Amino acid sequence: MLDWFSSHGRKDLPWQLEPTPYRVWISEIMLQQTQVAVVIPYFERFMARFPTLSQLAAADQDDVLRHWAGLGYYARARNLHRAAGILVRDYQGKLPADPQQLMQLPGIGRSTAGAILSLALGQPQAILDGNVKRVLARCFAIPGWPGQHAVQKRLWAVSEQLMAATAEFADNASKPSLIAAYNQAMMDLGATLCSRHSAACDSCPLASRCIAHLSDSVQQYPEPKPARIKPKRGTRWLLIQDPDGKILLEQRVTSGLWGGLWTLPEIAPDQTGAHWCQQQLGRAPQRVEKLADRQHSFSHFELEIFPELLVLEQHPTQIADDEHRLWITLDEALKMAIPAPLKRLLQVVVAHHHPG
Predict the structure, then answer these.
(1) Cα 218 to the center of its chain, rounded Å
(2) How far is CA 178 from the centre of its chain?
(3) Inter-residue contact 20 to 119 (CB < 8 Å)
(4) Helix %, strand %, coil % for the chain, to 5?
(5) Among residues 298, 303, 268, which one has the least CA distance to residue 75?
(6) Which of 159, 291, 297, 355 has its CA 20 to 30 A from that of 340?
């Protein structure tokens, strides 16, 4: 793996060029559930805005979410912000070098702690992200879905044995760099050659000892998560424009779906936006236009979105700006911390619709 990484591994990713614990931590959180190519521009913008841990801790959560918007799984961003505050308060603004202390922080699990300590500090810590799980499951023909406790326990045992062997193989002078290279190599192999839907076994450095390859059963490992039909939920989004062309945004509570982000007012699909406007704004809309339905997939359900454009001829009498509500232009709204499906909707409206 070390020989393969030397020739074929990725060594110029932004967080690798200066692998401080802070930068590795941010990258590892962003890379959860998200591919490298998607993460790179987000990472660079995030680090430009929050170059140090103390600056992240001092920032408003809304600013953090705005720089995260589009990456999804927003609890990751809220956890980053919370953890940064804890680190400034309790750890002099530095990530601890102890895995157990790291795992006490919001959003840092066993594998993320191992990645931070091995990639940034060269500690012999095992990792087990999705790519490494797939490589190990295939190489050692480990049956079962990795989300099952027994399967995960076995994968961790293998990962720890391999890390111990790597640490034993290296001399003291080269140990930190080789440990970091080995873990990065395992992640790179899973991300490039040993991917979920295709495996380039002819180019794989482990082909001669991979049980799944030798038994022609690569696609059987790891076993997929047991199939489950996602439930569907529906919501009606109200894109309300006042006579100045401004729209109403509301900030969601900090927990739950899109926590802390700014969204449009929402009602049940069987309710009407015109009635909501009359009740909440004291004005009936001059025009109501049904916009194209949208669907957004979450890990545990499908959200069906039924958006309406409601144009007011007169300014509302009952809702003004406050801490959690804003009348804002479309261009300004696109710069707010808004969910990806809302950003796409607003972009369509900017391109095709005009107030009045």
Answers:
(1) 28
(2) 28
(3) no
(4) 50, 10, 40
(5) 298
(6) 355
The torsion region of residue 179 among left (phi > 0), alpha (psi -120 to 50) and beta comes to alpha
Q: Are the beta carbons of 183 and 115 closer than 8 angstroms?
A: yes
User: Which tokens sit at 2?
Assistant: 């070390």
pLDDT number for residue 321: 62
DSSP letter for 219, please.
G
pLDDT at 353: 55
Q: Which of 132, 2, 73 is nearest to 256 (CA)?
A: 73
Q: Which has the closest alpha carbon to 24: 91, 122, 98, 104?
A: 122
Rounded Cα gap, residues 168 and 59, in angstroms:
43
355 DSSP assignment: -
Q: How far apart are CA 325 and CA 251, in angstroms?
A: 6
Q: Which residues contact 322 (CB under 8 A, 6 or more apart)?
A: none
Name which of 270, 274, 276 is nearest 287 in CA terms.
274
Token pair for residue 246? 């401004």
Q: Are 296 and 305 in contact (CB under 8 A)?
A: yes
Q: What gap in Å lies between CA 99 and CA 59, rounded to an integer?
A: 26
Cα separation, 196 vs 204, whole angstroms: 14
What pLDDT digit, counting tens, does each position of 3-33 carry?
999 999 999 999 999 999 999 999 999 999 8
Task: Give the predicted TM-score (pTM) of the model.
Answer: 0.80
308 is catalytic: no
Phi, psi of 325 (to 5 degrees): -140, 140
At which residue do the structure tokens 């091995």 appear?
Answer: 118
Rounded to 5 degrees, φ, ψ at 290 are -75, 125
Check if the beta carbon of residue 40 is closer than 8 Å to that of residue 14. Answer: yes
